[in-house]
Specification:
alpha/beta; 16 strands; 2 domains; seven-stranded parallel β-sheet; Immunoglobulin-like; TIM Barrel; 444 residues; elongated; 18% strand; seven-stranded antiparallel β-sheet
Amino acid sequence: MRVGNPMYGKAGPRRLRWFRQARLGMFVHWGVYSVLGRGEQIIYRDIMPEAEYRPYAMRFKPPKDWARRLARQAKAAGMKYVVLTTRHADGYCLFDTAADDFNAVKTGPGRDLVAEFAAACRGAGLRVGFYYSLLNWRWRGYWSPERHPEDLPQMVAQVHTQVRELMSNYGKVDILWYDAGLLPGEGGHGMWGGRPIRGTTVAGFYRSRELNAMVRRLQPGILINNRAGLPGDFGTPEQRITPEGAGRPWEACMTINYAPGWGFLRGSTANKTPGEVLFNLMDAVRMGGNFLLNVGPKGDGSLDRRERSILKPLGKWLAKHGEAVYGTEPGAVCDFSEKRVQGPMFHYGMWTCRGRTGYLTLFYYPGETLVVSKIGPRIRSAVLLTTGRRLKVERTTNDRTLIRGLPRRPPDPLAAVVKVEFEGPPYGVADLDCRWVDGDWKLP
């Protein structure tokens, strides 16, 4: 039986085309909390009074070139878009807002950091994304809605005001990335305790339909995620690679550390290697998704050594192998709708496809000969994309193909890629029958 792939057959609205081609973006969690170096949720995690937290904003004064440096690093790492936390759950805004004086213009840097970010991204040819936390932990009414019911409409009004400002004051915005869509009373980021208010939903409380309608009027081409209680344009699995169904776009966001700590962590020892990050990127791409890799800059906007040690080899790898990533699709190599998530040849690596071309990223290097099995149609030619070397193709039993001439040792420290030209679009085969034991099995 051939593998079908109904989940990824729809092109979607025109505004999604660039997103489907991009495949890789950078997530940036940065704010007052970066000064402390203990993660983005430190005000709540350490139950730090507002009066104790607010003065740290006066130490949050990045140099004028922080955004240009960050954009250059994102570009060099192969990112196609960058999403910045314009406001996290501490409520501190990196932009000028009339709705709260706890912002980068009035408290701390004395500058509009979102304006600097947007200009730097555009200058580097990167798409611009704004993260915005619907939740602001500094509202007493969020924690105790029964004691401060007067806060609830003000919370929602603040969200609408600030999103309008973000959509109006910074030119073209490509992505609006909502987060923390929680109801008042829901407790610590929805994870610990609390009794949410009744009689409404997240979308109902924040008036999300009205909010998104305003966003689309101001930014007609924008993409909106699914974290305001509405489906939005794309799904956002967090810290896991989980495809969405029915052709729906999705983007897996993930930290370099295992905490997870999205903001700067001064002392993190449990971190992913470059190979693990690349594996997660290709796992998302082979299943039709994007990968949003997070960094947590220091208070001055610079990246620490462990993040640079990931981004540099990733960028070097993508400079050689980018055609196996950007603009590729799962094709019909696997049918993820039936949870056959490993797919054929997963013991060697992962396939991505473009038309009649397949790319096999070899996370488990086979040596001098690669056996292509359970994938059709016939193979015309193969090249080691890593070096440009042409490889020998030989048909053998059970409709397999031997690809010979690979170097004895892996030619890339992360993963080699073999580029394969088929007679038609590649497809996988899910089921075998007993004939393979005798060497008589044929591709359907």
